[in-house]
Amino acid sequence: IMDALAVSLSEVELTSRQWEILTAVCRDHLLTGRPVSSLQLCRMQGLRWSSATIRSELAELEALGLVMQPHAASGRVPTREALRRYVQDIASARGLGGLGLEPWRSDLID
Length: 110
Description:
Blueprint: H1 2-10, H2 16-32, H3 38-43, H4 51-63, E1 67-68, E2 77-78, H5 80-93, H6 105-108
Antiparallel strand pairs: 1-2
Helix pairs in contact: 2-4
């Protein structure tokens, strides 16, 4: 069942706004190790949408299985699938094509 879920998640297309928000969540979470709130995304990451709009998109990303909310009053954290997409995007954007990523490839991409 998990393999089928991974395949279906990897086929999900995100809007540019959703991708920008997801990227900011991944980046902030990797830097701090803490859940990321919509207010943090507005102020610290410089996203140009209101916190209400960002909360709405975070709810959609949560429904897609790309972020989760560890506690009712906390921000969101990226799921394994979200981090996998984030790493793939960085690698392809920088032309790394796996350079330096081989030791983690099975954990992050497969």
